[in-house]
C-alpha cells in the first residue's frame, strides 16, 4: 500500500471536540458504532482505526481482534482461502481510490465464514491531506470458487448445471470413483432411455453388451482413464429397451484438489454415421469386385481377338505378297504387337494397383529365363549392339518363385535397353546378392551404352505413365507403364528396383533384386522330377472310371515283370493293397511296415524297385520324410503317395516332398491301374537314364583329360560348387595373356566342350570362350576378329541365334584343377536329350530347355 | 444278400469281394482280421481316454479310419474320423476346439458309437459270409 503524506492521526484525536457535530445531541461516535452498515475506518497507513458494531457481527470478530491491526494482516486471517488474491485486490483498490480521490468498489471478497463482501472504498481528505479511509462492506450472494464446482452429487454452478442438463444430443453424466452413476442429464435420458431416479447409483456397465462385459471393458476403461486421464472408445452400447446404438464414449477422470473424485462421461450416438460407413464400405467392396471382374474379363476378351489378329498377320506374311503388301502387313503386325503390349501393361498395372495381382510359386530356372529373354530381344536389336551375359558361377540352378513375373521384369529391362541402345553393348549380369537359410536374393543388372537417362528424369523413372522425353515417346511406342510395373513386380517378389548411370560409358544401369525360396536339399530331385515331367504336365491324369480293357490286358502283362514296394503300416490295408495288386497282375511286391523300413529297402537295393507305393501317415518315419530320404540318396524311383486325407493341397504337399503322384484312399482299382500305368509304362525308366548319364559322363571325362593338359590357361568354366565369389572380381581377374591365335590351335572337340558350361548362352558362329581375357570394357571391341578366326571351329554347332552380332562374355575361369570334377556335376541336371546331344560334340547347347530360335 | 444299410460302401466292399478266388478265401479272413484289429484299437482307445491322451487318440482314430475306409466300412470310418479330429483339438468341421474336456467328451461319445457300429456290422458280416457259403 502506498503511504501518502504520512500524517499522524491519533486515534483519540479522532474523537476530539473539533470533529464534534454542531448539533451536540447527536453523538457521531455513537452514530458510527450503531450504524446498520458494516463499516471500517482506516488510518492513512491502513491500520484499522474503528469498526462498526455491525461489522463485528457480520464478520464474527471481536473489536480487539481488529482495531489497531494492519488491514492486510487482519484480512489474511479472515479471508478464504489464505493468501487469497482478494487482499491484493483490496489494497490496490484503496491505493487507486486515494490517488484518484474518488470512491471505488472492490470485487467480491469471501471471508472464511463463506460470506461474500464487496468493499466500497471512500478516501476522506481534509484539503490535500488524507485523514482516513472508510470501507463500507456490502454483502453479495454466497459465491463458490471455481474449483468447487465439481462435487458429485453436490451443488454445481447453476449456469453450468443448466447447460449440461439441457443438452439433448449428448449424454453427459458423472460417475463416482467406483463407476456408479451420480448425475444424469436430459441427453442421457433421451439416448439411453433411463430416467434419472432409476439410474443414479447404478454401475455404468449396465450400458455394455455381453461381449464387452466378458472382456471387462468397463473396468478396463476406468483403469486406463485413471492412468492416462481420459479414454475414448467406439462401440455398441445398450439402451434400457435392449436396443443397441453405436456410441462414441469419452471418459475423463475428475480430480478435486488433487484427489480423484470420479469420472465425467460423454456419450454420443453415432449409429447413423456407422450405418453410412458400412454402406460406403459395402459399396466400395462391391465396386472393387466389379472392377476386378471386369479386368479379368477384359484381359481375356481383348487379348483373344488380338492374338487371332496377330496370328493371321504372321500367316499372311508367309504367303506370296508384293513388296507393298508386305510393308502394309508388317505395319499391321507391328502395331498389333505394340497394342497388345499396351493392353497387357494397362491390365497388369490395374491389377497391381488394385492389389489383386498374385505371385505364384513355381520352379524358376533363372539361367534359362535370362537366356531366353536375351534371345527373344536380340532379334529386335540394332545391328551395332553386342550382348554380354554374365552369370555368376554360384547362381542356383533352380529356385522357387514366380518364373513368369521374373521373366517379365527381365524382359522389360532388357527390352528397354535394346530400344534405347544404338551401338555398343548391353550387358546382363546375374548374381546372388545375398543368401540365407531359406532364400536367395538374386541381383539382376542390365547395363547398356544407350542414350541414358537425363538426371532430372531419373527420379520419375518408376512413376506410372511417365516417359522421360517427348521425343522418345514419338520414337518408341509404349504406355510409360513398363518400369512402374517392373517396380511393383520386384516389390511383390520381395526385392527392389533401381537405376544409376553407367559409369563406364554413356548409358544406363537398371538393376533389380528378387527374393527366391531355396529348394532345400531337394534340388537334385526337383531336377529329376523335371526330367520326367516332360511326359506329364503336372495336372492330374484325366481318369475315367474304367480303364479300357486292352490297357488293362496290356498292363497286366507288364505288371508281372515289375517290382513294387508297398509301404503301409495298417495290416488290413496291406492285405487289401496286396490283393488288389495281385489281381491286376503284380507278382513282386515287397512290404514295408513304416517309412524307415521303406527307406532301408530302397537304399539297400537302389535299382530294385520300379515304383514305391507310399502311405503317408506311418509310425517312425512318415511317407513325406521317407520320400525325402530316398531322394536325398539320389534314387529317382517313382513314389506314389496313398492317403485318406484327400484334401485340397494334399497332392501339392506330396509333390513338394519329392513324390511323383498321389492316390486317394480308399484306393480305387481303376484309378490305381491308371496311375501305375502312367508311371510304369509311359514314363521313361529312371534307371536307364541314370546309367546312360553315367556312361556319358565317364566318356566326357576321358575326352577332357588331354584337352585340359594341353591348355595352360584357366578355362572359362564356372564351377557350380565354388562358394560365391563376387562376380565383378572374377571378371576382372582374367589374365590377358593368351592371344586368340594360340587358342585356335587347341584340339577342337574337347576345347568346345570345356568352353561351354551349361549356364552359358552361346550364339552360333562365335566362340565366346575364346574371348581374350581382357577387361570387360574391351571385350566387345576385340570379339569381332576373334569370331571370324574361330568360324571354322564352331561351324558344326547348331545355329542357335540368328544374329551374328551377339557377343557373349563368359563368366571368368575358375581354377583349372577343379574343372574335370565340375563338368559332370554341372551336367548332372541336364536332361538326357541334352546329354546325348553333348556327347555328339554339340556343346553349344545351352542348359535351358529353350528351343533354338 | 444281407443288407448292410449305411454301414458299408458297396463299391468299395465289392472291390474287396472281387479279390476272392475261391468262395471268400480273401475277404472273410480279412474282415475278421479287421474286427480283431478294431477290438485291439478300441482297447487302446479306452486306455488313452483314461489317461486323457488326445494325440494318441488322434493317431488311433486315423489308424482305424484307414482300414475301415479301405474295406468301405463307412459308419466305423466316420466315427474314427471324429475321434481323430477331436484328438487333434479340432471340431468335425476343422475349426479349433481348444477345450480338452469337450474333445474328450466327444471322443467318448464317438467311441461308444463306433463300438456299437462295429458290433452291429460284425453280426451282419457273420450272417453275410454264412449265407454266401
TrEMBL record, chain A:
Tell me where in this chain the PTM 4-aspartylphosphate is found.
615
Question: Residues in domain Histidine kinase?
Answer: 297-518
Instruction: Give the GO molecular function terms.
Output: phosphorelay sensor kinase activity
Entry keywords, A to Z: Phosphoprotein, Two-component regulatory system
Q: Which PROSITE patterns match?
A: HIS_KIN, PAC, PAS, RESPONSE_REGULATORY
Database matches in InterPro entries: CheY-like_superfamily, HATPase_C_sf, HATPase_dom, His_kinase_dom, HisK_dim/P_dom, HisK_dim/P_sf, PAS, PAS-assoc_C
Q: Where is the PAS domain?
A: 156-229
Q: Per its UniProt entry, which superkingdom is the organism in?
A: Eukaryota
Chain ranges of the Response regulatory domain: 563-680
Annotated stretches, region: Disordered: 738-853
Bias category Low complexity: which stretches?
Answer: 778-797
Domain PAC per the UniProt entry, residue ranges: 231-282
Report biased composition (Polar residues) as residue ranges. Answer: 827-844
Return the protein name. Uncharacterized protein
From TrEMBL, chain B:
Instruction: Tell me one GO molecular function of this protein.
Output: protein histidine kinase binding
Q: Which GO terms describe its cellular component?
A: cytoplasm; nucleus
Which keywords are on file for this protein?
A: Kinase, Phosphoprotein, Transferase
One GO biological-process annotation of the entry reads: phosphorelay signal transduction system
Question: Which residues does the UniProt record annotate as the domain HPt?
Answer: 23-128
Q: What name appears for this protein in its UniProt entry?
A: Signal transduction histidine kinase
- Which species? Immersiella caudata
- At what positions is Phosphohistidine found? 62
Pfam families in the cross-refs: Hpt
Report which superkingdom the organism of origin falls in. Eukaryota
Amino acid at each position: 500500500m502506498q503511504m501518502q503524506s504520512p500524517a499522524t492521526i491519533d486515534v483519540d484525536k479522532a474523537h476530539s471536540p473539533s470533529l464534534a457535530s454542531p448539533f451536540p445531541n447527536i453523538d457521531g461516535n455513537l452514530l458510527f458504532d450503531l450504524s446498520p452498515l458494516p463499516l471500517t475506518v482506516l488510518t492513512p497507513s491502513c491500520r484499522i482505526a474503528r469498526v462498526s458494531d455491525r461489522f463485528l457481527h457480520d464478520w464474527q470478530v471481536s473489536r480487539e481482534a481488529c482495531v489497531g491491526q494492519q488491514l492486510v494482516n487482519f484480512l489474511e486471517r479472515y479471508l478464504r482461502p489464505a493468501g487469497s488474491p482478494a487482499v491484493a485486490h483490496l489494497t490496490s483498490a484503496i491505493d487507486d481510490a486515494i490517488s484518484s480521490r474518488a470512491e471505488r468498489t472492490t470485487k467480491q471478497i469471501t471471508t472464511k465464514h463463506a460470506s461474500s463482501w464487496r468493499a466500497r472504498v471512500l478516501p476522506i481528505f481534509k484539503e490535500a491531506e488524507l485523514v482516513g479511509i472508510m470501507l463500507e462492506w456490502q454483502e453479495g450472494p454466497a459465491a463458490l470458487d471455481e474449483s468447487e464446482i465439481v462435487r458429485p452429487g453436490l451443488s454445481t454452478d447453476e449456469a453450468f448445471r443448466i447447460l449440461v442438463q439441457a443438452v439433448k444430443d449428448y449424454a453427459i453424466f458423472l460417475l463416482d470413483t467406483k463407476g456408479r452413476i451420480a448425475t444424469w442429464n436430459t441427453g442421457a435420458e433421451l439416448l439411453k432411455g433411463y430416467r434419472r431416479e432409476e439410474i443414479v447409483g447404478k454401475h455404468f456397465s449396465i450400458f455394455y453388451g455381453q461381449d464387452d462385459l466378458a472382456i471387462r471393458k468397463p473396468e478396463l476403461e476406468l483403469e486406463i482413464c485413471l492412468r492416462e486421464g481420459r479414454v475414448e472408445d467406439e462401440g455398441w452400447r445398450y439402451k434400457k429397451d435392449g436396443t443397441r446404438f453405436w456410441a462414441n464414449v469419452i471418459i475423463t477422470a475428475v480430480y478435486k484438489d488433487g484427489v480423484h473424485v470420479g469420472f465425467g462421461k460423454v456419450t454420443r450416438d453415432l449409429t447413423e454415421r456407422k450405418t453410412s460407413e458400412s454402406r460406403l464400405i459395402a459399396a466400395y467392396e462391391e465396386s472393387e469386385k466389379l472392377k476386378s471382374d471386369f479386368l479379368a474379363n477384359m484381359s481375356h476378351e481383348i487379348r483373344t481377338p488380338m492374338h487371332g489378329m496377330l496370328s493371321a498377320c504372321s500367316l499372311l506374311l508367309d504367303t506370296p505378297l508384293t513388296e507393298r503388301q508386305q510393308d502394309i502387313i508388317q505395319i499391321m503386325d507391328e502395331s498389333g504387337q505394340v497394342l497388345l503390349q499396351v493392353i497387357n501393361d494397362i491390365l497388369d498395372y490395374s491389377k497391381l494397383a488394385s492389389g489383386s495381382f498374385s505371385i505364384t510359386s513355381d520352379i524358376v530356372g533363372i539361367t534359362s529365363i535370362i537366356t531366353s529373354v536375351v534371345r527373344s530381344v536380340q532379334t529386335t536389336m540394332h545391328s551395332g549392339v553386342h550382348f554380354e551375359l554374365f552369370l555368376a558361377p554360384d547362381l542356383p540352378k533352380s529356385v522357387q518363385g514366380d518364373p513368369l513375373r521374373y521373366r517379365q521384369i527381365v524382359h522389360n529391362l532388357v527390352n528397354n535397353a535394346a530400344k534405347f541402345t544404338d551401338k555398343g553393348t548391353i550387358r546382363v549380369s546375374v548374381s546372388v546378392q545375398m543368401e540365407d537359410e531359406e532364400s536367395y536374393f538374386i541381383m539382376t543388372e542390365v547395363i547398356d551404352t544407350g542414350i541414358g537417362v537425363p538426371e532430372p528424369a531419373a527420379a520419375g523413372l518408376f512413376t506410372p505413365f511417365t516417359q522421360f522425353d517427348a521425343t522418345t515417346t514419338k520414337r518408341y511406342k509404349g504406355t510409360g507403364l513398363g518400369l512402374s510395373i517392373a517396380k511393383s513386380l520386384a516389390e511383390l517378389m520381395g526385392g527392389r528396383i533401381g537405376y544409376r548411370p553407367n559409369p563406364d560409358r554413356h548409358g544406363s544401369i537398371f538393376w533389380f533384386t528378387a527374393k527366391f525360396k531355396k529348394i532345400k536339399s531337394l534340388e537334385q530331385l526337383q531336377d529329376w522330377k523335371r526330367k520326367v515331367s516332360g511326359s506329364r504336365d503336372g495336372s492330374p491324369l484325366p481318369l475315367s472310371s474304367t480303364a479300357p480293357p486292352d490297357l488293362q490286358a496290356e498292363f497286366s502283362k507288364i505288371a508281372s515283370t515289375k517290382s513294387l514296394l508297398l509301404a503301409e503300416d495298417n495290416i488290413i490295408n496291406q492285405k487289401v493293397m496286396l490283393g488288389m495288386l495281385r489281381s491286376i497282375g503284380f507278382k513282386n511286391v515287397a512290404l514295408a511296415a513304416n517309412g524307415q523300413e521303406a527307406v532301408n529297402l530302397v537304399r539297400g537295393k537302389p535299382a530294385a524297385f520300379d515304383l514305391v507305393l507310399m502311405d503317408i501317415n506311418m509310425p517312425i518315419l512318415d511317407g513325406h520324410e521317407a520320400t525325402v530320404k530316398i531322394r536325398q540318396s539320389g534314387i529317382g524311383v517313382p513314389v506314389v503317395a496313398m492317403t485318406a486325407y484327400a484334401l485340397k493341397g494334399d497332392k501339392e504337399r506330396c509333390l513338394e516332398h519329392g513324390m511323383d503322384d498321389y492316390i486317394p484312399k480308399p484306393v480305387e482299382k481303376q484309378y490305381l491301374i491308371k496311375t501305375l500305368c502312367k508311371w510304369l509304362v509311359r514314363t521313361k525308366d529312371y534307371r536307364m537314364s541314370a546309367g546312360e548319364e553315367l556312361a556319358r559322363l565317364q566318356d566326357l571325362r576321358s575326352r577332357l583329360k588331354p584337352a585340359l593338359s594341353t591348355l595352360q590357361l584357366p578355362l572359362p568354366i564356372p564351377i557350380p560348387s565354388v562358394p560365391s565369389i563376387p562376380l565383378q572380381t572374377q571378371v576382372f581377374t582374367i589374365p590377358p595373356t593368351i592371344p586368340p591365335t594360340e587358342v585356335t590351335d587347341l584340339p577342337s572337340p574337347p576345347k568346345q566342350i570345356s568352353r561351354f558350361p551349361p549356364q552359358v548362352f552361346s550364339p552360333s558362329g562365335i566362340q565366346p570362350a575364346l574371348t581374350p581375357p581382357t577387361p570387360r570394357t574391351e571385350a566387345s571391341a576385340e570379339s569381332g576378329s576373334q569370331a571370324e578366326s574361330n568360324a571354322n571351329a564352331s561351324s558344326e554347332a547348331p545355329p542357335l541365334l540368328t544374329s551374328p552380332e551377339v557377343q557373349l562374355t563368359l563368366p571368368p575361369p575358375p581354377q583349372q584343377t577343379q574343372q574335370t570334377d565340375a563338368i559332370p556335376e554341372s551336367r548332372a541336371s541336364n536332361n538326357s536329350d541334352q546329354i546325348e546331344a553333348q556327347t555328339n560334340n554339340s556343346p553349344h547347347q545351352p542348359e535351358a530347355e529353350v528351343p533354338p530360335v | 444278400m444281407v443288407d448292410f444299410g449305411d454301414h458299408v460302401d458297396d463299391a468299395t466292399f465289392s472291390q474287396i469281394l472281387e479279390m476272392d478266388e475261391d468262395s471268400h478265401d480273401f475277404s472273410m479272413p480279412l474282415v475278421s482280421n479287421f474286427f480283431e484289429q478294431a477290438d485291439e484299437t478300441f482297447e487302446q482307445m479306452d486306455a488313452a481316454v483314461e489317461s486323457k491322451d488326445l494325440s494318441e487318440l488322434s493317431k488311433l482314430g486315423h489308424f482305424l479310419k484307414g482300414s475301415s475306409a479301405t474295406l468301405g466300412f463307412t459308419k466305423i470310418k466316420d466315427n474314427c474320423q471324429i475321434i481323430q479330429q477331436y484328438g487333434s483339438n479340432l471340431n468335425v468341421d476343422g475349426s479349433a476346439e481348444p477345450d480338452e474336456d469337450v474333445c474328450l467328451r466327444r471322443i467318448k461319445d464317438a467311441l461308444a458309437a463306433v463300438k456299437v457300429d462295429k458290433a452291429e456290422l460284425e453280426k451282419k458280416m457273420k450272417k453275410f459270409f454264412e449265407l454266401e457259403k
